[in-house]
């Protein structure tokens, strides 16, 4: 298994996927987010919903916002809808996919 440079728990299963950050050649860089898996309909891709606070200067308050991020799902991780995961930025893997799941945080 490769060292990602980020402290994450390693997957228990192994895979032969070239785009897996643990067993393949995909390197991670840039931003790291946490979110909840909203959809898992594609074979190796999931949609992550990330909620964050945005400050509104006019009203001196915060508002809740959310964004959807498409992320690559390595075969060695068992992820289901509704689980909290950690994703990291990588090179573009598809038109809308530039993130990869690196850890399952909780259910």
What are the salient characteristics of this protein?
107 residues, 0% helix, elongated
Describe this structure in words.
It is built from no helices and 5 strands. Strands 1-2-3-5-4 form a 5-stranded mixed beta barrel. The protein is elongated. The model has no long low-confidence stretch (mean pLDDT 92). With 107 residues, it is mainly beta. The protein starts with 27 loop residues before the first strand and ends with a strand. Strand 4 and strand 5 (99-106) form a beta hairpin.
Q: Give the N-terminus to C-terminus distance in angstroms.
A: 25 Å
Which percent range fits the helix content?
A: under 10%
Q: Could you say which structural class the secondary elements and strand pairing correspond to?
A: mainly beta
Low-confidence stretches: none
Strand order of the largest sheet: 1-2-3-5-4
DSSP summary, beta strand count: 5
User: Radius of gyration in whole Å, from Cα?
Assistant: 15 Å
- The chain-level mean pLDDT equals 92
Give the amount of beta strand, in percent: over 45%
**Could you give a short account of the major beta sheet?**
5 strands, mixed, barrel
The best one-word shape is elongated
Helical run tally: 0
Order of helices and strands: EEEEE
């Amino acid at each position: 298994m490769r060292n990602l440079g980020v402290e994450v728990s390693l997957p228990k299963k192994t895979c032969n996927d070239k785009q897996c950050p643990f067993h393949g050649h995909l390197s991670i860089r840039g931003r790291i987010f946490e979110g909840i898996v909203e959809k898992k309909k594609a074979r190796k891709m999931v949609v992550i919903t990330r909620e964050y606070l945005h400050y509104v200067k006019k009203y001196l308050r915060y508002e809740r916002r959310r964004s959807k991020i498409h992320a690559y799902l390595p075969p060695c991780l068992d992820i289901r809808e509704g689980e909290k995961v950690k994703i990291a930025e990588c090179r573009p893997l598809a038109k809308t996919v530039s993130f990869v799941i690196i850890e399952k945080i909780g259910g």
